[in-house]
Amino acid sequence: HRKVNSICCIGAGYVGGPTCAVIAAANPHINVQIVDVNQSRIDAWNSDVLPIYEPGLAETVAKSRNRNLFFSTNVSQAIEEADLIFVSVNTPTKKSGMGRGFAADLGYVEAATRQIAKIAKSDKIVVEKSTVPCRTAQSIRLILEANSRSGVHFDILSNPEFLAEGTAIQDLMHPDRVLIGSQDTVAGFSACASLAEVYSAWVPRDKIITMNVWSSELSKLAANAMLAQRISSINALSAICEATGADVDEVAHAVGLDSRIGPKFLKSSVGFGGSCFRKDILNLVYLSESLNLPEVAAYWRQVVEMNEYQKFRFARKVLHSLFDTMSNKRIAVFGFAFKKDTGDTRESAAITLVQSFAEEMASVAIYDPKVEERQVWLELTSNDTDIEAKVKERVTICNSALEAAGGADAIVIATEWDEFKDTNLNYADVYRVMNKPAFIFDGRSILNAGVITDIGFKLHTIGKGTEGRFE
Ligand code: NAI
C-alpha cells in the first residue's frame, strides 16, 4: 500500500479539528492541513483561543501547530498537496424539500467532493469522516469519476468518527475501535491499509477494524441510534419513577449490573442534546421509510419523541411546582451547553427549557461556564431581530451561578457541570439570595438531596419519586 505523507481535512469543526490534531501529533512525519471556508473559525484555530472547547485540545494542537499541523482557508492548495483527504463537513438535517426535517442535507459533502474532483491532479484517497446515510460513498464515487482529470484515480473509504464531545481527545487517544470501510477490491484494500497505518501510529492494531463501505456507514447511524435509545429508555423509566416513588438512579444501577446491559449511558436527564443524536436517528428514520420499512421507521422515531416528551414533562413539572404561574418570577438556569465539558449548545435541552419559561412570562437568568454569550443569543433568536428584541426582554446572561440565582424563585439545573455540584457550589449562599420558597429542579440528578433539603430548598430531581420530598 501507499504511504500517506500529506493529509488534508476539509471542515475544521468539532470533528475535523480534534481528529486531525491527534493524527498530526501521533504522526510527526505527516503534513496535516485542516481547511475550512469559514475564515473566522480558521483564525481562531491559529490563535490562543481555539474555536471549540475540549479538555486537552489546546495542548494537543500546541504540540504540532505550525510544525506539521496547519489551519487555512486555502482549500484548493491543501487538496492538491494531499495523498489522503478527510471530508469532515457538516451534514445537517434538511430544512426544506423532500425529506425535510429528516433526511441529511448532503450539499456540503457534495460541494467538497466536487472541489476535490476539480482540483486533484494526482491519485487521492477520499475518506468520509462526516456521518452520512448508507450508500453515500457511491454518490461520492460517481461525482469524482464524472468530474476528474483523466488518469487520476480515487479510492473512497468510510471512516466514521465515534468521539463524544466533552471527551473528544480522550476518545481519540483511546478509541474503543477505529472503523474503516472499503471497497472489496485490491485498490480498496490498499487504500484501507494506508489509512490504517496512519491510525496505527497510536491505536493498537486489533482496535482497527475493517469492513465493507455500506456496513461502515450504517454502523455509525446504528451506534448513535442505540446510544440515544438507551437514554430514551432510562428517561421513559424516570417518568414511572417520579410517579411511583422509585429512584431512577437506583433502578439504573440495578439494571446496569446485568453484564448483558452494562452500567454506562444509563443516566436519566432532562433529555439528550448535541448535534448528532436527533439528526442521525431522523436520518435512519428517513432511510427506513425510503426502503419501505415503516415499522422500523416508527420504532426509531419513538426514541426522538420520548426525548421531546422528557423536556416537556420537566418544563411542566417546573411550572406546576411554581403554583402554575411564572409571571414576575425569576428562573435561574444553570448550564446552557448540551452537556458538561463542552461549549457546544446545538440541540441543547436548555434551549427548549428557556424558551418555555420565557413563554410563561418568567424572567430567565442563564449561567454557563463555557458557552459564549453570543452563542446563547444565536440559539434563542436564530439571528432574527424581532425575536431578539422579545427574547432580550425576558432573558439575561449572568457571570456566575450565584448572580443568576439572585432574586430567583427557582434554579433549574440543565447541564451537569461539576461546578454546580453541592460539593463545589455553596448552596447555603445561593439559598440566601433567593426568593422563598426556593426551588431547585435538578434535571441532571447531580445534587445530594439531603444536603440541599437541609438548607431549606424544595428539591425536585429528575427520576426521583416524591416520597419524603415535596409534591
Ligand atoms: P461543524 O459544523 O462543527 O464543522 C463542519 C465545518 O465544515 C464547518 O466549519 C464548515 O464551515 C465546514 N465546511 C462546510 N463545507 C465546506 C467546504 N465545502 N469546504 C470547506 N469547509 C467546509 O460539524 P462537526 O460537528 O465537526 O460535524 C462534522 C460531521 O461529523 C457531521 O457529519 C457530524 O454528523 C459528524 N460527527 C460529529 C460529531 C460531533 O460530536 N460533533 C461526532 C461524530 C461525527
From TrEMBL:
<feature type="binding site">
    <location>
        <begin position="11"/>
        <end position="16"/>
    </location>
    <ligand>
        <name>NAD(+)</name>
    </ligand>
</feature>
<dbReference type="InterPro" id="IPR036291">
    <property type="entry name" value="NAD(P)-bd_dom_sf"/>
</dbReference>
<dbReference type="GO" id="GO:0006065">
    <property type="term" value="P:UDP-glucuronate biosynthetic process"/>
</dbReference>
<feature type="binding site">
    <location>
        <begin position="89"/>
        <end position="93"/>
    </location>
    <ligand>
        <name>NAD(+)</name>
    </ligand>
</feature>
<dbReference type="GO" id="GO:0005634">
    <property type="term" value="C:nucleus"/>
</dbReference>
<feature type="binding site">
    <location>
        <position position="165"/>
    </location>
    <ligand>
        <name>NAD(+)</name>
    </ligand>
</feature>
<comment type="similarity">
    <text>Belongs to the UDP-glucose/GDP-mannose dehydrogenase family.</text>
</comment>
<feature type="binding site">
    <location>
        <begin position="267"/>
        <end position="273"/>
    </location>
    <ligand>
        <name>substrate</name>
    </ligand>
</feature>
<dbReference type="Pfam" id="PF03721">
    <property type="entry name" value="UDPG_MGDP_dh_N"/>
</dbReference>
<dbReference type="InterPro" id="IPR014026">
    <property type="entry name" value="UDP-Glc/GDP-Man_DH_dimer"/>
</dbReference>
<dbReference type="InterPro" id="IPR017476">
    <property type="entry name" value="UDP-Glc/GDP-Man"/>
</dbReference>
<keyword id="KW-0520">NAD</keyword>
<protein>
    <recommendedName>
        <fullName>UDP-glucose 6-dehydrogenase</fullName>
        <ecNumber>1.1.1.22</ecNumber>
    </recommendedName>
</protein>
<dbReference type="InterPro" id="IPR001732">
    <property type="entry name" value="UDP-Glc/GDP-Man_DH_N"/>
</dbReference>
<feature type="binding site">
    <location>
        <position position="444"/>
    </location>
    <ligand>
        <name>substrate</name>
    </ligand>
</feature>
<feature type="binding site">
    <location>
        <position position="36"/>
    </location>
    <ligand>
        <name>NAD(+)</name>
    </ligand>
</feature>
<dbReference type="Pfam" id="PF00984">
    <property type="entry name" value="UDPG_MGDP_dh"/>
</dbReference>
<feature type="binding site">
    <location>
        <begin position="161"/>
        <end position="165"/>
    </location>
    <ligand>
        <name>substrate</name>
    </ligand>
</feature>
<dbReference type="Pfam" id="PF03720">
    <property type="entry name" value="UDPG_MGDP_dh_C"/>
</dbReference>
<feature type="binding site">
    <location>
        <begin position="276"/>
        <end position="279"/>
    </location>
    <ligand>
        <name>NAD(+)</name>
    </ligand>
</feature>
<dbReference type="InterPro" id="IPR028356">
    <property type="entry name" value="UDPglc_DH_euk"/>
</dbReference>
<keyword id="KW-0560">Oxidoreductase</keyword>
<dbReference type="InterPro" id="IPR014027">
    <property type="entry name" value="UDP-Glc/GDP-Man_DH_C"/>
</dbReference>
<feature type="active site" description="Nucleophile">
    <location>
        <position position="276"/>
    </location>
</feature>
<feature type="domain" description="UDP-glucose/GDP-mannose dehydrogenase C-terminal">
    <location>
        <begin position="332"/>
        <end position="449"/>
    </location>
</feature>
<dbReference type="InterPro" id="IPR008927">
    <property type="entry name" value="6-PGluconate_DH-like_C_sf"/>
</dbReference>
<comment type="pathway">
    <text>Nucleotide-sugar biosynthesis; UDP-alpha-D-glucuronate biosynthesis; UDP-alpha-D-glucuronate from UDP-alpha-D-glucose: step 1/1.</text>
</comment>
<feature type="binding site">
    <location>
        <begin position="220"/>
        <end position="224"/>
    </location>
    <ligand>
        <name>substrate</name>
    </ligand>
</feature>
<feature type="binding site">
    <location>
        <begin position="130"/>
        <end position="131"/>
    </location>
    <ligand>
        <name>NAD(+)</name>
    </ligand>
</feature>
<dbReference type="GO" id="GO:0006024">
    <property type="term" value="P:glycosaminoglycan biosynthetic process"/>
</dbReference>
<dbReference type="InterPro" id="IPR036220">
    <property type="entry name" value="UDP-Glc/GDP-Man_DH_C_sf"/>
</dbReference>
<feature type="binding site">
    <location>
        <position position="41"/>
    </location>
    <ligand>
        <name>NAD(+)</name>
    </ligand>
</feature>
<feature type="binding site">
    <location>
        <position position="260"/>
    </location>
    <ligand>
        <name>substrate</name>
    </ligand>
</feature>
<dbReference type="GO" id="GO:0051287">
    <property type="term" value="F:NAD binding"/>
</dbReference>
<feature type="binding site">
    <location>
        <begin position="338"/>
        <end position="339"/>
    </location>
    <ligand>
        <name>substrate</name>
    </ligand>
</feature>
<dbReference type="GO" id="GO:0003979">
    <property type="term" value="F:UDP-glucose 6-dehydrogenase activity"/>
</dbReference>
<feature type="binding site">
    <location>
        <position position="346"/>
    </location>
    <ligand>
        <name>NAD(+)</name>
    </ligand>
</feature>
